[in-house]
Structure formats: C-alpha cells, structure tokens
Specification:
The protein is α+β, with helices and mostly antiparallel strands. The chain has one domain: Beta Barrel (Thrombin, subunit H), CATH 2.40.10. Helix content is 20%, strand content 44%. The protein has a 6-stranded antiparallel β-barrel. A hairpin with a 7-residue loop joins β2 and β3. The protein starts with 9 loop residues before the first strand and ends with a helix. The mean pLDDT is 92.
C-alpha cells in the first residue's frame, strides 16, 4: 500500500488544549503524539468526531511559547484503556503560523541528527 501522507510525521512530546467547535464550551487537555508540516496527532480522554473544527494551543519544550492554531479532525481512533477510552486524533492544520511549525520540526530534526552522531561515535 502506498503512503498517502505528504509530510513525515515526527514523534514528539508536549501538551495541547483543544477547543472543539461542536456547540459545546469544553476544553480538552491532550498529549501530543506526533507533528508534521500538515498537522498533529494527539491522545485525549474526550471524543471529537471527524470533520469537527478545533482551536488549539500547543505547548512543547521545543518552542519558547505556545503555538496557537486551528485545525480539523481528520482521523479518530478509540483505544480502550483500563479505566476509560483514549481517543487518538489526527488534526489537519487549517490556520497556523508555518514558521512556528518549521521551528519545532527543525528542533526535532536537530535532536535526531545529534542522537545519530552519538550512536556512530559510540
């Protein structure tokens, strides 16, 4: 099966606050799973259906301030946890400062390169 993603996903850590535009006033705390130039993946204890627009605030050690943006839920997977379901969401960016994302991904790539150099030099 051919890969359909346009951009590489990079595993990373961080947190996000998701504000779904679904008629509720809820804010959901999420754990960042991965990021790419086109979107991000999160794990959250609250279901947001595909097609729903979300506003988000992303916090990662790789950037010196929160990244504010908007996206659309494109992927939803329910994972049964011991006590509750966890939802894995894929969110496609619809409004984001591309420079912010570029800086985060550059930091990830620099970390990956540094790790590879350490492994080579033993």
């Amino acid at each position: 099966m051919q890969e359909q993603r346009r951009y590489i996903r990079y595993d990373t850590e961080g947190n996000a606050i998701l504000k779904p535009e679904d008629g509720t006033s809820r804010n959901l705390k999420a754990d960042l799973v991965d990021i790419s130039y086109a979107g991000l993946g999160v794990a959250v204890y609250g279901k947001i259906e595909t097609g729903i627009k979300v506003k988000f605030e992303l916090i990662t050690r790789l950037y010196d301030r929160p990244i504010i943006g908007e996206g659309k839920v494109k992927y939803l997977q329910e994972i049964q946890g011991k006590d509750a379901s966890i939802f894995r969401l894929g969110i496609e960016f619809t409004n984001i400062n591309n420079e912010d994302i570029r800086c985060v991904i550059n930091s990830i790539q620099e970390d990956l390169c540094a790790e590879a150099r350490r492994k080579r030099t033993g």
